Amino acid sequence: MKAGEIEFSVSESFYRGEEILEQALKEKLKEFDNVNLVGNKAVGIALEEKAVVSESVIEISGVKHVQMFKI
Asked: Could you tell me the pTM of the whole model?
């Protein structure tokens, strides 16, 4: 995927994992210190939960992406 100068490769071997329900994602957003989300639904949930701010979200080829780091 590409947006301007940003080129983003979504590797199944890195991003593909166990599918979880929405409630489980909400719980994990509170639990984890570092999160890397790709996908409009997952990023939308993170925004709803106020785990990330909209200014941190980028969109590449219509797909939302955000990284969260707790310090």
From this structure: 0.81
